[in-house]
Amino acid sequence: MRYTLILGFILFMIGLWAMLTRKNLFKIVIGFSIIDTGVHLIIVTIGYLSGKTAPILDKLVTPANAVQKVVDPIPSALVLTAIVIGLAVTALMLSYVVRLYKRRKSLSIEDYRELKW
Amino acid sequence: MVNPIMIFILFLGTAFLFALFDKIHRKFSFAILQLVLLINTFIAGQWLYKFVFTSQTPVMIFTAGFKPPFSINLRMGLEEAFILFAVNFVGLLSALYLSKSFKHSKVYPLVLYLMMIMGVNGIVMTRDLFNLFVFLEISSISTYALIALKENEQRLASGFKYMIASGLASVFFLLGTIFIYHITGTLNIDQIITHKSFVITSLGFLSVFTLMMSLIIELKPFPANGWALDVYQTTTSGVVSIIAVANSAGVFYAFYKLLPLIPHNQLLFIAGIGIVSFLFSNLIAIKQTDSRRLLGYSSIAQIGLLITVTALTRYLHVKSSTSLFIISSIFLSNFIAKAGLFWIAGIIKKTHIKEWAILRFKPGLLIIFGVFIFALVGIPPFPNFWAKWDLIRFLALSKLHIWIILILLGSLLEAFYLFRWFGSIVRSEQNEEQLLQPAYKTVPIIIFFLLLIIISIGIPIHIYQFDILPLLPIVGLLILSIFDFLPSKLKAIISMIIIAGYTLYIYPVLSGVSLVFAFIFLAGSFIQLIATMSRKGTDKGFFPLLVGMILSMGSLLVARSSLEFFFAWELMTITAYMLVLRGRKAEKPALLFILFSLAGAYLLLSGLSYAHVINFSLVGLGTIPISAHMLPITAFILIVVAFLIKVGAVGFHIWLPGSYAEAEDDTTSFMSSILSKTGIFGMLILLLFLLKMNMHHSALFTSMLGWIGIFTVFFGSLMAIFQEDVKYLLAYSSMGQLGYIVLCMAAMSHLGWVSGLYLAVNHLFFKAMILLAVAGVISRVGTRNMYEMGGLIKKMPYSFISVLIGIIALSGVPPLSGFGAKWLIYTALLEKGWYFRAGLSFFASAIAFLYLFRLIHTIFLGQPKPQHQNVKEASPFFLIPQFLFIFAIMAISMFPNLIIKPLSTFINPYFASTIQWQGNTLYSSLGYWNGNLVMYVTMGVFMLLLIWLIISIGRVQKVKQFNIVFAAERPFKPTTTHFAHNFYAHYKRALGTFVRPVTTGFWNGVGEWISSAAGSIRQIYSGNGQTYVLYILLYFIVLYFIMGGK
Amino acid sequence: MDTPLVLKILYSLISLAVITIWGLSLGGIVRKIYARVQGRIGPPFWQPFIDIIKTYGKRTAVTHGIMFFLGPVFRIAGGIGTYLFIPAILGSTIFSNFSVSGDVLLVMYFIFFGQLGMALGAGESGHPYSAIGVARGLAQMTAFEVPFALSIIAIVIQYHTLNITTIVLAQQGSILNWTLFTNPLATIAALIALLGMNMHNPFSVVLAPQEIPIGPPTEFHGSYLALMQTNRGIFNAAKLVLYMNLFFGGATNIFALIIKTFSIYMISVVVGVSFPRFRTDQSIKFFLFVPTLIALLAIIILVL
Amino acid sequence: MIKRLLIIVVIILLIVIFLPFMKNVILKDSLNELSSGYVEKSVSDLKTANIVTAVVVTFRGLDTLGEVTVLFIATAGVGLLLKRKKGEKSKKSDKRPASEILQTGASFLFPLTILFGVYIFLHGHLTPGGGFQGGVIIASAFLLLLLSNINFQFNHTVLHWVESLSGAFYVLLGLLGLILLGSFLNPKFLPLGTLGTLFSAGAVPLIYSFIGLKVGSELSNILDSMRGAEE
């Protein structure tokens, strides 16, 4: 599953590229989201064990053989939290962008740099 | 004991229900909020109490009914309790501070506020890596949102920058966490730390590096911190104080918790990150004019220092209790002071630091402001001082020289801009403005102020086992502060009583040379205090500081350990600084004074740290067996330079003239005649050590010292003659006289020391006399320019007499005591074989005539000015001490053995005596002197001639001012007839090259260079959020390669 | 030392009287020499006595204040004191004066006593020329003090004492024992300094006739001036005696004293008549350069 | 241009630095000690069929509480930034109403979606999904409503009560664990039941239900705030 790992990092870099080069605030936020997604993908990959199934007991996965049959439940649990947190941050970022736009009617990050030095 | 998990339950329970509470009434919900914070403060406080005062061991709290690593656990130990208490407490106070904002806002900010504090609580307690991430996010996200409180465009822009930077940091954290989990198979921090050997693999290192970098970026290291500065600059005060202290505290603790993951050999890099941040933030802050941004830089610098100290103490395996003390003291100073300063910023509501001048009209707030600044700089007794003391000692023991230099350099930069700010407020000329001080805003500030004071007094007593003796200066200062409402005369009397009492109290401890200095410091002060009675009104603040300063000097004498000595030294410095700052135009000079004094203090600190002796003091000297290598050469040089700065030796003298001249007139007299001797006292102790331990090359050092002394004499005297301002003249004169003392002490012989001490005492007499007389004159004529005076002998004859006696004593003309000094000096120098130094000092003492004549002539003789027609004699309060000193001078002139004999006995234990007495004649190996006989002969001849003259000429007519032989005309006006301005033009033509301001130029250059460096470095903060992100990445990359990522 | 005090005072008075007469005559002689060099007849050598008697006789009309009044007293007390602290003739009880009260350092510093008092008195007169004169005088003094002090240091190194009598004793026996010969460099430096002390040309800018009438004493007249004129004689002689003691083997009798002091004085007179006047800054530079270097050389040689 | 180049360099260097993450990771083929412990314990001690749920709600319950809090904060933050104050009435919207299809579809789908959401969180301990997922589905139902009906107004009172109480009850359940069993968020104070049935896993389904309600109402709240900011 190394491919998904690498894919995760590719997403990371794409997001970073967006954050660093796009001037539009929305696009920067989207870039951040992409990074987040990449990291989530990485987390899930870390928990994946090839050929195994979701850690939920059912007919196939019985209490007796569960340990051999399931993937690591921890990263799944973690990614759940991470996603929610990512969502929260994104929501706030977007709200900021909305407010900024309301105030100055500009979405370019270059227009918000009178604070410096 | 309350289960710490209750903190979360309380926070969350109320937060979730907050919307409902709010529906009842805002007052109700706000009360709930405060109640929650109060209870949590109490819970944390209770634990803190247990940890500090009982032998409570840290406890682990498990959740979910499982043991870790299966469940998340929390820890409550001393560190946690300490930070939680601080954070919840500041949360409580800040909530109070924000009460008005909260009253008119939506309900959300209150909820966010609660959650932010809870987030920090969680960060501190949790022992699970991912849980740590969650709590970090909780506090960050609520911070993001709170920045928008009282929204404006700048807040929004800075908040957005903050979010993208901090968002990136949290992504790194996540990345690090998951890979650490992958490697170790656990998320429990304690388990991870026990498995930390995984760090050596490249994957392991990268994971830990990514994780730590995330935290470090959240700690806002230079230069990856532009976003944080914007937030500090814009966010509303109540919120920013929480961000700056509580949030940082949380993140810092997370860093502290995870630091064991860093391999030992990488710790220095981490320390390097901190020190870079500390140095550069302080450097750039110099250029800062926006008060909030300035505080932001200072916060970042302090966090940098904390990082450094934490990493270094871990690197050095410092005992945990000690390292904890150092870290928590630095932490606490910044915590309290920064919160307080940001709160004050919210009251001032001005951005530019100069506009803070309105504080001047709020003495209470100004004092608090000053105390906070002192706490940041590390002035005793505030916690930072103790931390610095211990820290530098450890670094010195471990020979981490470069770190000492960097830390002290950064501290000096910080002191520079903070004191510059303080000075500009105190001395600004801005008019009074309306300043609202609502109670809800002032109460938190006052509480923190009191807290700081309590802690500051608690530390020396509890941790360093100080008894009352070294703390007496503070006690004295406080007593006088209580009586500050009384009129000056009364306060002067109280001060005199206190000083007399103090002298009696310490008298049993004094012996030998310390008696001499006790006489100078305490008796000298006592007499000069009479002069302060001339102050009008209540003159608030003067007496507490003065008494503080005098008692600190006394403390120097009776200090038993290096720490006590240094404590008294710093206390003296800061009180003196405040006194100087009281002068009307003293802003710049006072800044120079404190800068050089602090630089000196830091040198002293590092010198004492390098010394392998813990009682560098006169009392301590006797209690320990002295061995060689006690004072390594480095220590010796550092300490001696520290004292040379205090004395104002050439090269370090540029602080001296300004601060002596611009201080209030009676203060100048204290400073010049008394305070400057503390440097001599210190040097004496140092030389005693040197003497006892037979240091290698010690002859070379003392010889160098001798040259420094004589050049100080020479340049001091030479510069004095070109001054138009009487106080500048006297300041340079002091510099010269102190140079003589240094020269004598450096001679390291019986006669040398006798003459040094003799001169020290004598200088007290004549310099105090002259300065008080001049103070009296200035108080009447209202100018310090000598050429604007003239002919005052007729108006102020008594002042004239004391100046006359003073200059005769100073110049060394027989028969007065000054000749004794000269005789002793030359004899000592010639005995020692320092011929060239003796020659130069002849020259210098001849030069002294020039300025002395100019002094007396241009003020008292020559043509009186019309505007001084109605000038009266100076106040008797000025005259009484002068005449007491005249009496003293006359006494020791008539009976030199009165003073030389005891001095000689005091020196006897250290050097074999080379002088003998025969009656009143003093014999040295080279010559002899009978002061008594000289006096009689001179007086006899003089009186005879005088009587003869009076008899022979009978009645003479006293003529008016212009009745002189002036080319048969009457001179036009006194201003043109009074030959005073540029009196020694010809001398300047001949020797002007020597007084070119080389030193001043040098120091100015240093200042200029630092300032422009700061100016160009801060250009990196372009204001563009994307650039800041780029910096973070670059920072990440560069550090990765520096730390040798594999 | 064992002489009773009254006797001691009496002796001093005698010694003082002798030196006063000699000092004043010396002044007269010099004026005569000056005149002759300049092709004039000049006043008789007893002219100073006449001058003094005349000025004493004049009514002393005005005073500018207490310091003005005290100035001349200081001045002459300084001159007399200086002389009294120097042992004038070796072995003579009468001429040993009050030299028991101090060594050469005392004498060096006592020289300032009169100058300071004079400067103060002149200062109170309020006359700008006085102040200018004082400024120049003091400035010049600081400069010639340097070679003088250095040569004294050289002597101290040489004889290991500050005691004038001891120094003189060490020079007895042969003319070659004189400091002049044992330590010529120091002597030369000191003699150049003497030119400054005596304020003859080229270092006469302090008094500078034709420029600032007579400098510091401008406002003084009558008895004041008389006192100062008397002092000029005493003080001059005292300095010469000091030089004689330090450099020229001292004197064992009054004639030796007279001859030696006269010869020493002639040196500065000769220089004085043959040179024009230096500006103050020039003379400062001069003193700090040539004689100082010579004196330094003297010390260096001795130390090595 | 230089900046662009710098960015490229930075990204390349980051890739270089991150290489060990991609290269050196040894992908495992069996559970590590901790996770196999989780699997065993959730079956034997907690009777929770969905092991992820066991981890999320029980073992790492504090995380989840924090997670809910984060969402709660986000709601507050968005509310602070975007929500209009009372009385600050929105201008009459001149947007055209949603299409017929959307309106009809929405009114048909809305109750079903809600029901689905409730199902998801109620069965969180048995099947994939749980409180968060269920909550999101419920919120999406409201989103549908918002899209289809431009004049739709949330009943804020109900929303607040649901949000507040569900959160408070969550904390209360955790507290009960503390009081009854001595550790916070211990769900075992309710009977554990039999593995794989609805009433199993102690308080987990209850907790997840509250989480579902809380998340649903919070997200709806965010939607409401964001809509308020539109004009």
| Helix/strand order of chain A, N-terminal first | HHHH
Number of structural domains of chain A = 1
Order of helices and strands of chain D: HHHHHHHH
Q: Radius of gyration of chain D, Cα only, in angstroms?
A: 22 Å
Low-confidence stretches of chain D: none
Radius of gyration of chain A: 20 Å
Mean pLDDT of chain A: 87
CATH class of chain A: Mainly Alpha
**Count the helices of chain A. How many?**
4
Q: For the largest interface in this structure, which chains are involved and how many residues does each contribute?
A: B-C, 77 and 79 residues
Fraction in beta strands of chain A: under 5%
Shape descriptor of chain A reads: elongated
Oligomer: heterotetramer
Q: Cα distance, first to last residue of chain D?
A: 37 Å
Report the strand count of chain A.
0
Give the helix proportion of chain A (percent range). 55-70%
* Overall number of strands of chain D: 0
Q: Main sheet of chain D, how many strands, which sense, barrel?
A: none
Question: Keyphrases for this structure?
Answer:
heterotetramer, B: 1046 residues, mainly alpha, 3-stranded antiparallel sheet, two-stranded antiparallel sheet, 73% helix, elongated, D: 231 residues
Task: Outline the fold blueprint.
The complex is a heterotetramer of chains A (117), B (1046), C (304) and D (231).
Chain B: H1 5-24, H2 26-53, E1 59-62, E2 73-76, H3 78-97, H4 99-104, H5 108-125, H6 129-147, H7 153-184, H8 189-194, H9 202-218, H10 226-234, H11 237-258, H12 267-285, H13 291-315, H14 320-348, H15 363-377, H16 383-397, H17 401-426, H18 439-463, H19 468-482, H20 488-506, H21 513-532, H22 542-558, H23 562-581, H24 587-610, H25 618-623, H26 633-647, H27 655-662, H28 665-675, H29 677-693, H30 698-721, H31 726-746, H32 750-781, H33 797-811, H34 817-832, H35 835-860, H36 876-894, H37 897-907, E3 916-918, E4 921-923, E5 928-929, H38 931-953, E6 957-958, H39 974-977, H40 985-991, H41 998-1017, H42 1025-1042
Helix pairs in contact in B: 1-2, 1-5, 2-3, 3-5, 3-11, 3-14, 3-18, 5-6, 5-11, 6-7, 6-11, 7-9, 7-10, 7-42, 9-11, 10-13, 11-13, 11-14, 12-13, 12-17, 12-41, 13-14, 14-15, 14-16, 14-18, 15-17, 15-18, 16-24, 17-24, 19-22, 20-21, 20-22, 21-22, 21-28, 21-32, 21-36, 22-23, 23-24, 24-26, 24-27, ...
Chain C: H1 5-37, H2 47-57, E1 62-63, H3 66-84, H4 104-124, H5 128-159, H6 164-170, H7 179-182, H8 184-198, H9 222-247, H10 254-274, H11 280-303
Helix pairs in contact in C: 1-9, 1-10, 2-9, 3-4, 3-9, 4-5, 5-8, 5-11, 6-9, 8-9, 8-10, 8-11, 9-10
Chain D: H1 2-23, H2 33-44, H3 51-59, H4 61-82, H5 100-122, H6 131-148, H7 156-181, H8 204-228
Helix pairs in contact in D: 2-3, 3-4, 4-8, 5-6, 5-8, 6-8, 7-8
